[in-house]
Amino acid sequence: MTGGTVGIDGNSICIGGAGAMSCVEWTRAAIYLGAVIALLALVLGVLLWDALRTTTPSRAAARANRHATLASTIGVVVMVVLLTWVFGGVALGVWPRDGRVLAVLPALAGASLLVAQAVGQLTWPRPSGAHREAELVSRTVADVTPLWPRRMVFAWAGTALALLAVFALVADGPRSLTQGTGRFAGPIGPYPGWYYGLPMSLAIVATVTATELVLRLITLRPAVVGVSVDWDLHLRRRSAGHVTRGIQLVLAVSTAGILVAAGWVHLALGRDAYPLESGGYGVTGSPAQQHLGAGLMVLAVGVLLAGVVMAFVPLRRGQRDASAPDALAVPS
Fold first, then answer.
1. Best exposed site among 53, 224, 230, 284 by fewest CB in 10 Å?
2. What's this model's pTM, rounded to 2 decimal places?
3. For every residue of 98-130, which 3-state class applies, written as one string?
4. What are the residue boundaries of the structural domains of the chain, listed by start?
């Protein structure tokens, strides 16, 4: 095997340092990379289609359309790469040394989308020329943001925070539950106690706050010159839709991850025989724990599917093309 952080060992590719090395078979790594490429191609295809179907009645409109598309593309691509790292870590066994890094990785994926969008709004093309006209109208964040994706941002965030609070109270330690009794008692984890719950809670609150700030930037950015109020509103709603759809998916992944971590531990507690860290085996399983663990796992799958559906399924026309208030053309 060669030196460095990436090397080859027989039929495997190894990642990490001398103290913590993870090796994955080439076939599994190739399947994972192929899935990432296919997912990126799908996402880029959707973004390109979304941009091409937007009519551009002027050069300024075309420039604004390209700028909005670039901001969304950069943010979404980085977000997808980081999210697939989460699932890749589970599928391939390539874990960070500290589990808290994996726990907050979805929030970091959301941060990449928000940073790209914030930069896009702060560098929005300004009007140029000796005479410029744009239809100005007072708007709120609610006017430019699709209703249901924004609601799901708050719904997933609230659900994740509630689950973290409950599991922190249930946990017997900062990241474990106790299995067995007497000399056969021992901890089992990782369980979403406060060790993982505290950084995840801070990351979730920061993500929701940053999302609202970026949506405000989209609301307040300069109007596009030479287009109608409806066209300008459509472009704002498109940018806001990319933000809220992406962030609700990130928070859905975080929520599903919490449920999976807790469900796995409760399933382990329900088994008839299991190894203990203190030595020996526990022998008395709990059907109630097994049912609870299975239920949490099923719920995690449902949450993840709901997040994916909300990220890709088109909104109703009434939500997508909400009419703007009357506006007056104002020279600028």
1. 53
2. 0.82
3. CHHHHHHHHHHHHHHHHHHHHHHHHCCCCCCCC
4. 44-326
